[in-house]
What does this fold into?
Amino acid sequence: MGALLARVLGAIARFIVHGLFRRVEVVGTDQIPRGRPLLVVANHFNGFVDAVVLAGSLPRAPRFVAKATLGAFPPLRVLLKLFGIVLVQRTQDRATGVDNRSAFTACHRALRRGGAIAIFPEGTTHDLSRLVDVKTGAARIALGARAAGARGLVVVPVGLTFPDKVALRSSVLVRVGEPIDLDGDVGPGGEDDREAVRALTDEIEARLRIVSPEFPDVDEWWAFDAASEIVLRTEDDRDPPLLERALLANRLGRADVDAKGAVRRRLADYVLALSLARLRDREVVATGSPKGLIRSAIRTAIVVGVLAPLVLAGSVVTAIPALVVAGTGLVVTKPVSKGTVRVATALLAFPLAWGITAAQLADGWAVLGLIVLWAAAGLAAVVVAERSIKLVFSVIAWRVARERVSYLERLKAQREALVDAVRDVVGVLPTRTR
It folds into this structure.
């Protein structure tokens, strides 16, 4: 995959990521060395979405290693080849042995030239709340590339955290961990050296676990993520950083059974009280003011006024494909598959709608310009719609909070009890919660 194609694919991936997610938080990219071959390893909790997020978040889009079964469909195989995807065989997909020598050689060649390769070393995607055992493929590729002449090779662990894989326009945290310098941190040995492969695999797994969610079950993950979001929320910062949420949730997950039980009980009490009062934690932290709502309404009106022509065009052209994408998400039941199906459908439905409309209105290179315009218009329509909906819900929430102001003191006491329970587990909380 050439440098120009990599930049184009990276730009497309970034557009898709910001279309999929309302909030994208990327941390730690300063740890990625420039001008050196990279083997990116990441957890695989969200199917094809993981690859899109990686490609759109890293400084340079990598070539991906994927399972060979994806190439069984000829048109898809052509597309995978265009994108530089390296297909590898998995033992669970074949009754007989596997032979990945040619695939590994392609990875070695790319790394020797200073390129970037990305692999999901768990070997499968899943709906678990923790990393499954890492396979040896990533270590074998890295050690084989070093033996083949790749100098300065670095293995970069990346953790992907999706607080809600089911919701449309949710959030994602991309967390780059401490890289492994093969020349400086890893002893001698090639891909045929079992001890060297095992040692590097264990190190990759250890560093991936540091930056990935690590909970015994999904219920505990949800509970401690929710508790962390509540505890970290303040009047001035109603949407705490995803990194701080993840770090605090992981600390809670490492507590003893009794301490975790205390936090979950306080959380359950508070969430139940909020539900019965028909309020959200946001209203308990700060009920807001009419002046703030008026300022928000003015800002939204300005945005709508400025972007109105673009939003109108985007709404007309993208309405049908957007409904198709939303509909496919209703058909699929497994959370890990929803994102994959949505992205695959979007990659087909949106360009098709933009292309057909552009071809009817223009000729030649103007068609490409219109396609880009429709894409920008569609994203603008989403942003404006979200801001408008958020304003409406803020007004409703303010009215409800004003009507139920007598409940707030009791809710604040229950909230403080949750904060105290979390503080008992982790000690000193970040400044924002004091």
